[in-house]
Amino acid sequence: xxxxxxxxxxxxxxxxxxxxxxxxxxxxxxxxxxxxxxxxxxxxxxxxxxxxxxxxxxxxxxxxxxxxxxxxxxxxxxxxxxxxxxxxxxxxxxxxxxxxxxxxxxxxxxxxxxxx
Amino acid sequence: xxxxxxxxxxxxxxxxxxxxxxxxxxxxxxxxxxxxxxxxxxxxxxxxxxxxxxxxxxxxxxxxxxxxxxxxxxxxxxxxxxxxxxxxxxxxxxxxxxxxxxxxxxxxxxxxxxxxxxxxxxxxxxxxxxxxxxxxxxxxxxxxxxxxxxxxxxxxxxxxxxxxxxxxxxxxxxxxxxxxxxxxxxxxxxxxxxxxxxxxxxxxxxxxxxxxxxxxxxxxxxxxxxxxxxxxxxxxxxxxxxxxxxxxxxxxxxxxxxxxxxxxxxxxxxxxxxxxxxxxxxxxxxxxxxxxxxxxxxxxxxxxxxxxxxxxxxxxxxxxxxxxxxxxxxxxxxxxxxxxxxxxxxxxxxxxxxxxxxxxxxxxxxxxxxxxxxxxxxxxxxxxxxxxxxxxxxxxxxxxxxxxxxxxxxxxxxxxxxxxxxxxxxxxxxxxxxxxxxxxxxxxxxxxxxxxxxxxxxxxxxxxxxxxxxxxxxxxxxxxxxxxxxxxxxxxxxxxxxxxxxxxxxxxxxxxxxxxxxxxxxxxxxxxxxxxxxxxxxxxxxxxxxxxxxxxxxxxxxxxxxxxxxxxxxxxxxxxxxxxxxxxxxxxxxxxxxxxxxxxxxxxxxxxxxxxxxxxxxxxxxxxxxxxxxxxxxxxx
Lengths: 116, 637
Prior knowledge:
The complex is a heterodimer of chains A (116) and B (637).
Chain A: H1 2-22, H2 26-47, H3 72-103
Chain B: H1 2-7, H2 9-27, H3 31-58, E1 63-66, E2 81-84, H4 86-109, H5 116-135, H6 139-157, H7 166-195, H8 200-206, H9 213-229, H10 236-245, H11 248-273, H12 280-302, H13 307-327, H14 331-362, H15 378-392, H16 398-417, H17 420-448, H18 464-482, H19 484-500, H20 503-510, H21 514-518, H22 538-558, H23 560-563, H24 589-592, H25 594-599, H26 601-610, H27 615-636
Antiparallel strand pairs in B: 1-2
């Protein structure tokens, strides 16, 4: 079961990288960045998963012997990483809007005033 | 008792930046209050870190601060630590100095800009992020701070509304830079999966004995991630774009401080976490990347027509020196790399600030549009010359000493191992240094000397508020060149010792004997003895320099009588170069090394064509580099 998660995570990352390297529409490049973020989030949260474990939140008296829970640290990391990913996407899209206003195009091949 | 007081300094230093960023925003458009707040926010961390020099650098204490007092329980560090050893403090001081000087410079400098309110918010966020990275003892915290820093840097790159290229540079920086962040985060996730901890000290104890294939992948990812942040080859085009578009005071941070976090990360990953540096394959990887960065970027710099873009390529070229030197894995190599790191921050900061002054005075940094500014801006010219001499490694300035250490370290390594490869590295270093000098001759010629362009008649030196930070940087350049022994004793050697011996770093955080029980196969990576030989006496070089200067002055004064004859403005007095178009035949930057560039035209033309400026191409480079590094690590570790 976890293998599927890892494969899915790597697949998302690779698709994201592919989009960033091969797509000339800068909005698609931003989507690629988003995909890699999701892949990594999936990866981190899978790392901390214990099969059969419960949520790592207990009130008093609930804890009985034999119970175990999933690792809470990766979940905290994933939350942070999701927030950061959302910020990256928002910022990149804001830049896309400005670039479209200034260059009149979203084609990355034409956005190359800085070269050489 | 004193230890208890010192313990809080690092965290206050980081918090001051972030709190300052918040208060600056509240100040709105009240410029006086905002400057006072920003000034305090950059000075307090500098003071705090300077106070730490005594306990950390001299007494060799390591300061650990557990956020919220979450200390390790039963050998597992769950809480977030801030851990300051000599290496962290070394980079912290470097950051604090650059941030403070550049901050004071920008009070005056950003008067030209329209969105002044948000400038200091982003500036302090960037500083806080960098400070957080170098002082943190927690791997995920480093990633978060890396992202904070990247955001602020992207925001500041896109900051100048009147610069038409700024948004493009920021977009490329964000997208291609995200490969680095992605790799770092993935590497951190894998490290966590293996070690179940994020504390640097604990990972350093657990990881080196458990190098599974997953950890090799994690190492490759972290290496590539921090490498991207240090803008090593082939991530260098981002740096060039970003430096050129950002305000000069921010370029100082991006080049002097931002790239150093990448270097710091590489040191932590290679020397501490994985301890793979003993493996010769990793050394060769780092040295090859360093040499390529060095050479490619210096030749790209020769090809540039924009002052700041040229400086940006030089910046990566100097990072190449640092990486090469660190890759040697000898005490002298690490010392040379760290010394060059602090020198690079100082002289490159100075050069970017002079470029900013030129922009402030003339409104352009395009080399072909400038010329003869020495007559109008004599003070800036002197500062530029100090910076240019330092970066080109001309004694007695600081670049000479650190480059000398790097040459010696590479050559010694060659003698030790009997491998001709390392001697070739020395040759590459020297050739790069010569080309650096060549391109600064070109800049000096086309910006400050030669014929004054008529439209620059009104240019004048920047106001005192901008000159003082530059003078301080110039003074520090001269100081670290003239008194290398003081620098070595108080700053470099403690940092090298911290890299050499990681046991105290682990034990201070995790409790005594933690390292001894977990790190069973511990071997020091290098010989801890640092011996600098070579005929180097800075004072005699200074004397030689003074005599040469006096000779030049004498010739200049003797020739003064002839110079009073005023030439009639006539094209027959002009310098003639074939095929020039400009009315004023000032020997432009592109023409000065015409013959040299003609001989190298195939290479330079190819390099120029390859740097297409298309985001996708840079992405392909970045991903290729990532793939190559991963494949290399799997093949040789």
